[in-house]
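Team,

Forwarding the record for the chain on the shared tracking sheet. I've put the sequence and predicted structure together so nobody has to dig through attachments.
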Amino acid sequence: MKRLLFYFVLFVLVSACEQKPTKLFSKITTSETGIDFKNKLTETHTYNYFTYPYMYLGGGVSTGDINNDGLEDVFFTGNMVSNKLYLNKGDLQFEDITEAAGVAGDQRWFSGTTFVDINQDGFLDIYCSVSGKTPPHNNVLYINNQDNTFTESAAEYGIDHDGQSMQSTFFDYDKDGDLDLYIINYPPTSFVAPVAYYSYMLTNHSDEDSDKLYRNDGGHFTDVTKEAGLSSFGLSLGVVASDVNNDGYTDLFISNDFNAPDFLFINNQDGTFSNQIDTSLQQTSFFGMGADIADFNNDGYMDIFQLDMSAADNFRSKANMSAMDPAAFYEAVDSGLHHQYMQNSLQLNNGSRPGELPLFSNISRLAGVSSTDWSWGGLLADFDNDGWKDLFVTNGIRRDVNNKDFYGKYREFFNKMENDPNFKNKEEEVELLKYLEELPSEKLSNYMFQSNHDLTFTKRTVDWGFEEKTFSNGVAYSDLDNDGDLDLVINNLEDTASIYRNNTTNSNQLTLNLIGNKKVLPNGSKVSVYTADGMQVQEYNLVRGYLSSVSPRLHFGLGQVQKIDSVIVAWPNGYHTLLKEVQANQSLTINYDEAKALPHVLPRGLEIQQLFETVDAPNDHKHEENNFNDFEVEVLLPHKNSTLGPALATGDLNGDGAEDYIVGGSVGRPPSLFLQNSKGDFELLAVDDLEKDKYHEDLGILIFDADNDGDNDFYIASGGNEFKSGSLGYEDRFYENLGGNKFRRNKEAIPDYKISGLNISASDYDHDGDLDLFVGGRLTPKNYPNPTDSYVLENISDTSGPKFVDGTSKTGLDLKSLGLVTSSSWIDFNNDGWEDLVVVGEWMPIKFYQNNSGKFVDVSNDVLTGNTTGWWFDIQKGDFDNDGDQDLVVGNLGKNYKYQASDSSTFKVYLNDFDGNNKSDIVLSYKDGETEFPVRGRQCSSQQMPAIKAKFKDYNSFASANLNQIYTPKMLEASLSYEIASFASLYLENDNGRFIAKPLPQLAQLSSINQFVVEDFDTDGNLDVVLAGNLYNAEVETPRNDASFGLFLKGNGTGDFVAKTMMESGLKVIGDVRGMELLSKKGKKHLLIAKNNDSLQLIKVNALR
């Protein structure tokens, strides 16, 4: 009995000691794992960051089973220390076999690493990239001898590349059944090299500077870089091989540092590649670091994640990050270096049909992953086994080498070190290391993000156990303990490598191990897993993240799914293997079996006609924006106000029953009027008065019958920011239809207001039988965001001709300084037979004016509660829920912009003469917790307000200050200010005269919505919506809004919408959309789209059966 009691007590004690982990990941100590690798740097006066600025780029890690015992092993590269290879002995215990294995390396600076079965003998080999200050720089290949030893054989294979290589990836680009090799290089380049240098080097680089493609010719590799079209110049830090256009051929994405543009090399299927970065990606990261490609939203298309060095923390962002130079930015764009911004990029792949290039939308801001400080490697993988890929990011730089105050203090010294011959090779004498040690050094936590299954992520760094602060570089995932979840291995600078055990429980999973044969490789295979919860897709490509390669096993989290409907392995040779009814929670090996393989077919639906189809434009008309720099006058302006056109309007202008259109011009270019002929073609009609009036910015056009004479006249609103307030350039213009294709400007028909406007809308608000007008004032020129006046024009036309007078006061509307109006809608929202007025604008709440028999009352707070202030750009009406009243859709800035807002963290603007120089100053602010900070940093803020430099002598003091400390509470309280709690675009459902706000679907939040068209496009009896937008001309520190390619929202008749992707609907609108209207062409329904500084686009609406 005593013995039983003893064992019972012992059991209780042991159970108490073995408490379950409270977090998803646990860091395993060196004493537990036996992994003691530390990438330690030894800096001296002559060998340090100042003499070798690539000192802190770090090392990589590879995971894989080198001895085929079923346990995955770990290899680290060292910069100034030996490489290390650890054999997995089970239970997360490892043995250091480096010396016996012969993989320690030599004095070379090892950077990237990848496991690869280069000779297809079934055993993983190791390929290492080499860089460093001093030679040799030849890359290294360790061939696995199948006995836990390796033989260096790079020269024998022809891939002892001599360069400054960072990483390499193996893939079969020519589908000949063997692995080819792509090597990325980082040629030594001055960090202050001008834009012109990068643009010159794109076409004038040496062979040594280029990345390299080596073709595998029967076991020996041949440099085919030039003949493959891959000769390039880039400061390359990341490479991923992936089939981004789903054509069965592997493409390449290269992430480049500084002004060197990134590359998206599309495989042309003939042994060559074409760089399509400008076509497929609308923007990229500036300081491009590591990258990964994976299908993070489970739609079957490969998305791209790229890292930069944008800090989320206010202090670090303002103390370390330099302001972008507008002149250099636009020079880079004009030189073909693309739109590059200092932020992480999460490029959502919108898909592509056969023969087309994919289009990507950078949604990192929407996703919440844009800013993770000085980041290196990012991995998309399912870490919680819920069936959706999460995101892990390594973070930290050994010293804050961009610290503004440090270089401000020692600028003269470093100029001498670089340029004065008397200081050449004097590092020891000047004790250079002492200067280096003055640079701030701050370890940072890595980032972990959990997928929310809706294109967004939630930061789980602390919740999941990643509080440790390090300087982390390369990272790889692997199920090291074979328990069905992904563990993490991290190569840290100056610290022992981190091993994180994944503690996931209560979720199912499937692990797949692909085995090819001598003719068919697993590399490049694409695996699709279908369950009741949907589809997941993964590719067999090992090099991901930064300087590292991940486990060759494919891991699929399944959540609560216990049985998989089917698994399809699409092999590189065009055949596939199909498995049905697969049980969860197992590790399966799938061998390529030629006898059982089936020919691969295209996904269903690609051959079906789509609802929308871009057809030839009606003519070669192109809007050409005049050159005007708004930022010279308003330094802190968030976006240009001179590029808001062109306006567009459609209607029958010559009474022949066919629809015509008018498209506005910019300053110096007249609006153009096109008449549709009997063939459905559009011919430009010469109108003398339009040509005379070309020195206006045409931002609003309304076609309507002003005088009830049976033909359509038109009104053009003049706007923009080019002229001073009150200038003739802001005169609105009314053009009277004289019949016989003759139009004349009638200056007497409308009041002479001279406001910078944009919006005109018409309604017979007083029930007198003619159309009256609302004219919205867009802005006070050169004084953003100061509001301007709007007006109601009463129609008093008679037989003598059209005539409008100011009827604003008569209506009871208070429209003086109404706001920055962008759109209006006449809608009888209370169903009393009188059309009411709804007005929206930038920095405006949604304004509702109820029409009581011609007199208006502001009922905004009664019909829609809460803070409705936004950057609203369009509003349209329709009975979307088929209940007999009119609902509204309202287009906002969207949730994917640098500016974010919520009820607890609002976004604000202030306008005041903060420095007392008789000029208004703009201050944008955001909240971090309860503290309000300026959006802009010390450098650009002081350009508008030089007194800031006097008040804050250095960047650290400015970075440490909040908004009140910088501008004082007294000045802020006396300012014109607006506050926004949401930038989401909305559906407003009319509920008996009151509105209920609902956000539009997530895909509608990717960018600003400038235009809606409401129509039953699919003729199912329910109203649908097509939307388009973007905002290209943001100030250069704010990435432009360019993620929208238009969107079809299919209405279901109950007020709900289903967002149909580009692949589903066929709708594809690229550009800065400013006008979109329905247009009937030979009786067929079309959409006509006008874009800033671009050609017109015509989209046919197909009649689907």
